[in-house]
Write a structure and sequence with these properties.
The protein is an alpha/beta fold. It is built from 42 helices and 31 strands. A hairpin with a 4-residue loop joins strand 12 and strand 13. Helix 9 (about 305-315) runs parallel beside helix 10 (about 330-345) and helix 37 packs antiparallel against helix 39 (about 1160-1165). The longest helix has 26 residues, at about 795-820. It starts with 9 loop residues before the first strand and ends in a 13-residue tail after the last helix.
């Protein structure tokens, strides 16, 4: 390019290797200036690449990053102190509440109410705390605190009130914080403390006068005068000062007006709480529809009186307890509560004792209301519904975990409340009733029990709300009870009525049954009313065939046959395979329904032997129902029975707890059952519960109950007691569990002692608390007025003398009762023995034993002739006389000498009233003496002179007294009565030493000794009564407190809680587990489960859910054997800890784990079909299914535990194990939920 031709006076130079050109000045002589920088190279002023790389690798310190001036920058911050004074805006203290008519919903006005103060997050017990995550709204979380239980308002009051204490600022201040090992020490300070008296600061002095009115601190005069009292008296007075309370209730001042509104009745002898109100159901409710014009739910039939009364109280937002017979219509009350909650846009929880009943109720209520949910261990359906049906254990878990469902809960329905008598699960009912918040109303449905008022009174006292008891003995369909003695078709007419529809026991029917039995044998001796011998098993088939023929002939089908043995049920069903009770159309209907029910099962499961056998039985109209049957087959049987397609149903007593499934007839195969410990007759409550299934309301005029007399006819008395006796009372089965203790210990405001105090078992001890508090206040005032006895003699040793007298008299009575029950003493205490009597009516009076008898309480009572003053009657000692245990001074041991003329009396004394059994005996005519005295006690003969026998005995006694005024020699326990018990001999020696010490006391020389002794005795009694009442109001009086302390020690040894009872990580994990929480937690923390395969984990944990004692021995793999040994080792360790802490164990802890299904569960988790795993054991199919279902719940609990401790490996394995076992027929959907 010719740049000169263009008139350009610069050149272009190519730089680098990228083809870039830059302009350069043009020089005249530019021949030596290159037009390119390459390949000539860079200018000499720039370093080469190699040099730069070498410097970078060899001189690292010269890298720019190490240059502080360029790498580290500092930006100065400007101080803004005003930011420290920033405060969040306080929340509003009041809210506007709408006031509506509770019945019609009409708007009445508005009112302003104060809001409760709430804590942030999950640590508040208030319903106003923020809701939790959406995933925890139903089940809650173990990190949540439960909502404040109803009846525990004092908890919040305690948190807001200041306690009045006396603080010693030199001794009571802590230098080590709770939970810390070390703290601050002030010993090294150079400043020497001044020598002065410690200053006690009373916080009450800092309070206003209005606050002081809440406490009874005594008046000024009493305090001033008490300064002069001696040390002991001051000690007593310090005990009655206002103390720091150990119980939540003692910090609450009783508001009398409020308590009166809640049903507290104040009587002359103290405050008495009556929370149970009995409702009259004998008179009709005439104005029912006027009082409730717009019912929340209406039925097509007319309601009974008890149902109307219950609905009236539900409309008033009141809790009810409905006790009625089976099939009486108790469910109507529950249905109306559900309808009310839907109307009020709140929620109702319906609890049942068993899962099967929950499924049945879900189907029933869903057909009625539609919006119904179901929550069980493995099924959750429509959890946002207005009505939730669940087992009581699920509700307990929701309460402990602070479920948000509780916020909207208006009603909780407890069905089958008499199940609280169950020894294993009855405690759950009590826990739930105690933990329910105040805003939740309670509906209790139960069979007839004799102590409904007592139970309702306990609930009302616990929840501080009245419970209205509605109890009716009316049965919609009367029952007729029969004895059946037939054995073949020829004798099938031997049906004898023994109790008619009016509950009259017919002796004639019973005698006819005996005669019928006698006619079947040549000898009548084998058929008497022995009641314990059953019939021969081979004759069962003929008996049942004759029974069914008789029922069919009398049109008494369908029938339920209660049999108390699963094996016997299966045998009876097999014996009747040839019996056909259904028509062709019924067989077709059964076939269609059966196959539609099992069509969702896999083809191999549809061919299970039990399924095929059940199909053939059902087509003949025969059903079987017990725990060994597959759940889906039990549901098929129940539904076909409801359709009257099952004519005869062989069942265990669990069927009597189902929904309303009445039959026309109930048959008892036997009236004896095995309750797990022994064979016994049925209790009246059990018999009535099962017999109540007889009689269909609206279809039958009477229900028929038949008892089969296969062997001997039961005793008449046993039948009468069983059929017409009182049902079993509701009794507390409350017991402490580790889960309960840990769940309550994690909440600072709730104490285990308060849970125990509110249990039904403590009801009788706690119901008089208000009365005791009034009495304590009165005693407090009386003790404050006690003054020391001003006497220079009595002030020396009167108190010690009184204590010695009390010990002497107590020990003497105790020894007399023991010694006089000795055979040698009984032999000596015959008619004519002279004794010395001392009690509240006799003081060292001489008497003669005339006769001895045994009282009702197995205590020996002696009839004696006693010497006394004439014309002075002596009270008989047959009744317990108040004050008979009072302390009297042991000063005068001289015998009583009557004033002339001498008298006598006939009295009855006990062993404790005999102070001395003398060596003297008098020959007397005992019968004549007793007859003579009894005769002269009649008004007609009262002026007659005593007989010769009485006069002789009296004169002999008087002579003995006059000649031995200082006392007669008594029988020596060792020499005369030949006692060889070392402890008794030592106690007699102690008694003699105490008696000898009485002569050395100075107080007995006081001229006013008697008055001073009585005054001191009265003061001691006041103080003892005060201490006794304080004990009754304290936690130490709780029966379960020792066991609670022992269990806490076990938890501390196992590191579930620390020394301050704070729940540790192991305790938090145990709260997540619902079954055998200690064992499973130990397995998790010992890392035993993490090393196993998911199938092995499932097999190993099956031991905590399997309960059958006797089954075939499984064949276990080596890893399972190792895991089994680990479980037994941990169980033995836990047992050792429990025994070391003093717990009384019925059996060893390792006995609670059953390993019989480990092989079955292992193979099931590996994918083996159900038909094959049933061949690995003799356990029935239904029990296997129930075990695996419960195992799934346990695996889910362990999975949650792994999440808490942060173990992802165990969490993943638990998830895999759950998925492995959740398949096929074991987890087939319930027919009631489809």
């Amino acid at each position: 390019m010719d740049l000169e031709g263009l008139g350009v006076d610069f050149d272009l130079a190519e730089v680098g290797c990228q083809g870039k050109f830059v302009p350069v000045p043009k020089r005249k002589n530019n021949e030596g200036f290159p037009r390119k920088t390459l390949p000539a190279g860079l200018p000499p002023i720039l370093p080469s690449w190699g040099e730069e790389l070498e410097d970078y690798l060899t001189c690292i310190e010269q890298v720019p990053v190490h240059d502080l001036n360029s790498a580290q920058r500092f930006w100065p911050r400007e101080p803004h102190p005003e930011n420290l004074y920033h405060a969040e805006v306080s929340g509003v203290q009041t809210t506007i509440q709408v006031d509506r008519n509770p019945t019609t919903g009409e708007l009445l006005g508005y009112k302003e109410e104060y809001l409760e103060s709430t804590s942030e997050g999950k640590t508040s017990l208030s319903l106003r705390r923020p809701p939790g995550p959406a995933g925890q709204d139903v089940r809650g979380s173990s990190a949540n605190f439960p909502f404040l239980p109803g009846g525990m308002e004092e908890v919040e009051t305690m948190l807001s009130e200041d306690k009045t204490e006396f603080l010693d600022f030199e001794k009571d201040l802590l230098s080590v914080a709770p939970g810390m090992m070390e703290g601050m020490t002030f010993n090294d300070l150079d400043i020497a403390p001044k020598q002065k008296e410690p200053t006690l600061l009373n916080l009450a002095d800092l309070m206003s006068a209005a606050d002081l009115d809440e406490f009874n601190l005594g008046d000024d005069e009493d305090e001033g005068e008490s300064k002069n009292e001696d040390h002991d008296q001051g000690h007593i007075l310090s005990e009655v000062k206002l103390e720091k309370s150990e119980s939540l209730e003692n910090l609450v001042r009783i508001d009398e007006d409020r308590e009166t509104e809640r049903g507290v009745r104040v009587g002359g002898e103290g405050r008495r709480e009556e929370w149970a109100v009995k409702v009259d159901v004998d008179h009709p409710v005439a104005d029912f529809h006027q009082r409730i014009p717009d019912m929340a739910y209406k039925w097509e039939f007319e309601l009974d009186v008890f149902q109307k009364q219950a609905i009236l109280h539900l409309e008033n937002h009141e809790s009810v307890f409905v006790a009625a017979h089976t099939s009486a219509g108790k469910t109507v009350v529950a249905e109306y509560a559900i309808a009310l909650s839907m109307k009020h846009m709140t929620r109702t929880v319906y609890t049942s004792p068993i899962k099967a009943l929950s499924n049945q109720k879900y189907r029933e209520f869903k057909q009625t209301f539609g919006e119904v949910g179901l929550i069980t261990g493995d099924v959750q359906i429509n959890q946002t519904a207005s009505c939730l049906i669940m087992t009581t254990e699920i509700l307990r878990s929701m309460l402990y975990n602070g479920s948000d469902v509780i916020r909207d809960l208006e009603w909780v329905v407890f069905d089958e409340v008499h199940y609280i008598n169950d020894a294993e699960r009855g405690v759950v009912w009590e826990e739930v009733l105690i933990m329910l918040p105040q805003h939740v109303h309670i509906i209790l449905l139960s069979a007839t029990v004799p102590n409904t008022l007592e139970f309702a009174d306990w609930i009302g006292r616990t929840k501080k709300k009245k419970i209205f008891v509605i109890s009716t003995l009316k049965r919609p369909v009367p029952l007729e009870h029969h004895l059946y003695t037939g054995t073949t078709g020829k004798t099938s007419n031997e049906l004898f009525l023994i109790v008619d529809g009016k509950k009259n026991f017919l002796t004639s029917g019973y005698n006819k049954a005996l005669e019928a039995k006698k006619e079947k044998s040549k000898s009548s001796q084998g058929f008497g009313p022995k009641g314990t011998r059953g019939g021969h098993p081979n004759k069962d088939k003929n008996i049942w065939i004759s029974v069914i023929d008789m029922l069919k002939k009398k049109d008494k089908l369908p029938a339920v046959a209660f049999t108390f043995s699963k094996k016997k049920i299966d045998e009876n069903a097999q014996n009747l395979l040839s019996k056909d009770l259904t028509t062709a159309s019924e067989k077709s209907e059964i076939h269609i329904f059966f196959h539609s029910a099992i069509k969702k099962l896999k083809p191999p499961d549809q061919k299970l032997p039990q399924v095929l056998q059940m199909e053939s039985l059902l087509k003949n109209g025969i059903g079987v129902h017990h725990s060994g049957i597959l759940p889906i087959l039990k549901e098929v049987v129940e539904m076909l029975f409801q359709r009257a397609l099952v004519k005869i149903l062989f069942s265990t007593e669990t069927f009597a707890m189902g929904v309303n499934m009445p039959a026309r007839t109930v048959v008892f195969d036997s009236i004896r059952k095995n309750d797990g410990t022994c064979f016994r007759d049925l209790l009246p409550g059990e018999y009535i519960q099962m017999a109540g299934r007889a009689g269909r309301r609206g279809l039958d005029t009477t229900g028929t109950v038949i008892i089969l007399c296969k062997g001997d006819v039961p005793e008449m008395s046993d039948l009468h007691k069983m059929m017409l006796g009182k049902p079993t009372k509701l009794e507390s089965q409350f017991r402490l569990t580790y889960s309960m203790i840990l769940n309550l210990l994690r909440v600072e405001q709730l104490r285990v002692e308060d849970m125990m105090k509110r249990s039904f078992s403590e009801f009788h001890h706690q119901k008089d608390v208000s009365k005791h508090k009034v009495t304590i206040d009165q005693l407090h005032k009386q003790i404050a007025q006690i003054r020391p006895i001003e006497c220079y003699l009595c002030s020396v040793d009167l108190e010690k003398y009184h204590e010695s007298c009390r010990d002497y008299q107590c020990l003497r009575r105790k020894l007399q009762e023991v010694v006089l029950s000795h055979p040698a003493a009984i032999k000596a205490l015959t008619a004519g023995r002279v004794i010395v009597i001392s009690n509240s009516f006799h003081s060292n009076q001489l008497g003669i034993i005339l006769n001895s008898t045994m009282a009702a309480n197995n205590e020996r009572v002696f009839t004696c002739l006693v010497l006394c003053d004439k014309n002075k009657s002596v009270k008989s000692q047959t009744e317990k006389v108040p004050g008979s245990e009072e302390v009297t001074p042991v000063t005068n041991t001289d015998l009583f000498l009557p004033e002339a003329p001498c008298g006598h009396d006939l009295v009855q004394v006990k062993a404790k009233d005999i102070s001395t059994v003398t060596v003297k005996s008098i020959r007397v005519e005992a019968n004549k003496i007793m007859d003579d005295i009894k005769k002269r006690q009649m008004p007609r003969f009262k002026d007659d002179p005593p007989g010769k026998s009485v006069t002789t005995a009296t004169q002999e006694l008087l002579r003995m007294v006059e000649s031995n005024i200082h006392g007669l020699v008594g029988l020596d326990p060792v020499k005369d009565l030949h006692l060889r018990d070392i402890d008794l001999v030592e106690q007699f020696r102690s008694l003699q030493l105490i008696e000898d010490s009485f002569r050395g006391y100075q107080c007995i020389n006081c001229p006013h000794f008697t008055e001073h002794f009585r005054e001191h005795d009265r003061n001691v009694k006041l103080k003892e009564e005060y201490k006794h009442l304080k004990f009754l109001l304290s936690d130490e009086s709780l029966m379960l407190l020792p066991e609670y302390e022992q269990r806490v020690q076990v938890l501390k040894h196992l590191n579930y809680i620390d020394e301050n009872n704070a729940v540790q990580l192991k305790g938090r994990v145990a709260c997540e587990i619902s079954n055998h929480e200690i064992m499973i937690t130990e397995l998790v923390f010992e890392n035993i489960l993490t090393e196993l395969h998911p199938t092995e984990i499932a097999a190993l944990l099956s031991c905590v859910v399997f309960e059958q004692k006797n089954c075939s021995e499984p064949k276990l793999a080596p890893e399972l054997v190792k895991g089994k040994d680990s479980i037994l080792f941990i169980a033995q360790k836990i047992t050792a800890h429990q025994r070391r802490c003093g717990m009384n164990l019925v059996g060893d802890y390792e006995d609670e784990f059953k390993f019989g299904l480990m092989e079955v569960v292992f193979e099931w988790a590996r994918g083996l079909p159900f038909a094959e795993i049933t061949g690995l054991t003799d356990v029935q199919e239904g029990i296997i299914v129930r075990c695996i279902q419960r195992l799934h719940e346990t695996l889910r609990d362990v999975r949650n535990a792994a999440r808490i401790i942060g173990d992802p490996v165990l969490y993943r394995k638990m998830e895999e194990a759950s998925q492995m076992i959740k398949r096929d027929i074991v987890f087939a959907a319930s027919l009631y939920t489809q």
